[in-house]
Amino acid sequence: MGFQDIFKKNFIEKFTTEDITVLQILGVLCLVAVISVYIFGIYRLVTRKTFYSKNFNISIAALSLITAAIILAVQSNIVISLGMVGALSIVRFRTAIKDPMDLCFLFWAIAVGICCGAHMAEIAIILSLFMTILVFVLEKIPVGKAPMILVVNMNKMETELALIQIIKQYCKYFKIKSRSVRENNCNLVIEVRTKEEYEIVQSLEKIEGVKNVSLVSHDGEAVF
Fold first, then answer.
1. Which of 48, 74, 106, 144 has a CB 3.0–4.6 Å from the CB of 81, allowing a cystine?
2. In sequence order, what are the beta bridge partners of 151?
């Protein structure tokens, strides 16, 4: 077979159509819609961020339907598949993914669309079940507690020595992360590990020269 034979009409016609009925299309899209709603609910349960985006969650569910429709079109016509590759190759997405978990759900939605569009719905269902188990099991695994941030505002530099002595009494670990001085006012940011949170704040507040004391708990993200 020569290179010119690829462009012959009779060669293309061998791969032009596949018998895909309207009922099959509706069945695939309905199944994808059900799994998409399932992914929508799992994402809402797992995501506890204050800045939860419902629009992003909807886009994850819609992505499965769009992917399934593309796969159905590609497998039915080789000409469309070549044009689809060319069209999708020029698409550029500028929205940054801030949370790695969002990227995981995006690939999950795409995989469901591909599997269902290729008539392998069993893989999509089993994948969804295993993904659910994996996400919830790993979510329950305890991790080390992040250090707390102690912020102290003082009007005397000499107060820092007394401050450090009290911190040593209540904390197994502490590290000064920042020290800023302006017009005899000193602001300290200290990373600490302690279980006696209330006691250390009360003790530091009683030191002469201390104006404000704040103890902030964090885990690297804003949650509610």
1. 74
2. 189, 214
Q: Is the pTM of this model over 0.70?
A: no
- Beta-carbon contacts of 25 under 8 Å, excluding residues fewer than 6 positions away, are 72
Nearest to 149 by CA among 124, 117, 178: 178
| pLDDT tens, position by position, 56-100 | 889 888 989 988 888 887 776 665 655 555 555 555 556 666 777
Give the right CATH number for 148-216 from 3.40.50.1370, 3.40.50.1000, 3.40.190.10, 3.30.70.1150: 3.30.70.1150
Per residue in 178-201, pLDDT tens?
A: 777 777 778 888 888 877 777 888
In 22-38, which positions are buried (b, 16+ CB within 10 angstroms) versus exposed (e)?
A: eeebeebbebbbebbeb
Phi, psi of 51 (to 5 degrees): -95, 45
- How many residues are given for the chain? 224
Mean pLDDT of 32-46: 91
Q: What 3-state class would DSSP assign to 213?
A: strand
Q: In the chain, what are the domain boundaries?
A: 4-140, 148-216
